[in-house]
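Input record (one chain):
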Amino acid sequence: MITERGFQRSRTIGAYGGEFAEGRGYVWAEGIRQEIHRRALDAHLRLAQLEEADGHDREAMDILVRAVEIGGCAEEPCRRLMILQARLGRTDAVASTWLNLQRRLAELELDPEPATVTLYRRMAGQ
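The corresponding structure, as predicted from the sequence alone:
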């Protein structure tokens, strides 16, 4: 049985269906597209924070996984996901999240932020 809370969570994270006017080439839509994307990512991060505060770590992790998917190469969702994965003893998932982030950043010829590198090394025991 789905609880009211679960239903609301599902509706919240399911509301973002992807980039606004994706592939249309509308120059005027770029600012709108960026704003909707930022708001969707912020909503995911806030909802994960609330779930985590209520002790619903698995639900928070599911939301953070989705935040990482829509966040592209945004590092904050990855850091928060790695912290939660480590707390749940999922060291394999921490390594996977780290490798996926590195891959996405490398595609853009970017390096991870020092805070992300430090966090990963601490969690990986390096």
